[in-house]
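Try it yourself: sequence plus calcium ion, in.
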Amino acid sequence: MKVRLCLRLLLGAVCYFLPYADCQSAVLISEQLDARGDASPGYCDIVAARIWQPDSRHYQLEVETAAPLPIFNNETDWIWFAWLLDTDRNPATGQPHDNIGSEFNVRGVVSEDPSVNCGMIDLVSSIPALGGEVTKFVSGNKITIILPFDRIAGQNNFRFQVVSESFINGVRATPDVTGIGSAVPATQPFPADNPLRVVADSYGGLREGITAFTPQVWLQGEDGRPVFLQPGDKIELYSYFNYLNILGRTVTAYPGVFHPTPLAMAVNGRLSDNRVAVNLGSIWIDPPVVHLNTVTPGKDHATLSLHAADAYGTTISLAGRNINWENFYQAPAIQVLPLSTPGLAEVQCNASAGGGLSDVKAYLDGVPSHSYAHVRITTQDYNLPPFSAYAGLYNTFFNSHDF
Ligand SMILES: [Ca+2]
Ligand SMILES: [Ca+2]
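Structure, out:
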């Protein structure tokens, strides 16, 4: 485990030294430089907050820190940066801060906990707006958030201030706060050859010995036609989590890693509208089909086993992992009870509930299994052949009166 961790840290460090997109195709709307050394650790120390405008509908909010943003090894650690947007330019309205009354707060959170790691627009005033989750990217010393104007009700003319806060190893770091900047959308028409959209591959699977791939990216013009990449175009990749080794345009899986992660692509500094969903490794349940009945001893329970392998096909040890089983359709006839051996669970009939049907899935360290166990329970023993007679998950059982 330690070897793998060191490898990840080493390869992660290499990634940090790759050049970061400098947004050549976006307009710099505002820049707030901040002192270096006025917050610690260095990844909490904001040295610049910038707002770029890549087109007529979005800002790219950027924070640059004194040190690279870390790879956390503890799900309870987090750091966030918040852009406080004072969209009526009135410090007396909205959420009060020292010299800012924010109508919207845009947060970029970095955490190993997928339920926390996000970009988010918080609505902190009475202005009706969509708000919600937005795309966030982390690369080296920078965190970037895509802010669509329509998510803040078009209130894109604002004062802003950026603050940092973090909680690492149970300690709150020294927060940092920038001066107040001003953002006014560019009135220029954006260059006609500036593509409207950057679209990346939607999916990349690294599993069963497929350990590397090169995702493709396309450009789309204002008129909907494709804009072709030129030989000198600069293409870069950004991983949402540090679960991938990115060297140039190639993505490679780390040994032992099975967490999925989204990936963004950039062409000449402009980030893709969508993200590449990269699945790493395989997580599956055996057997895929289970048929039980409530009346025959020995046929009223079965053992399910969870398996996992990384992209290289190497078995992932389940010892010490967080494993949760789920009765997906919440069928009352089915009970799923984890056994003491990691990765094993017993599925049982709840006789008083009659027949039922459900899919049972499992989560390994929060990552859902890629397959289900399809469980059917009847109130009679139909002497059905073993599950192996049912070749797939979608075979039909014909005792319909029972379900
Ligand atoms: Ca600072
Ligand atoms: Ca205000």
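One thing you can check immediately is this: Helices lie at 2-16.
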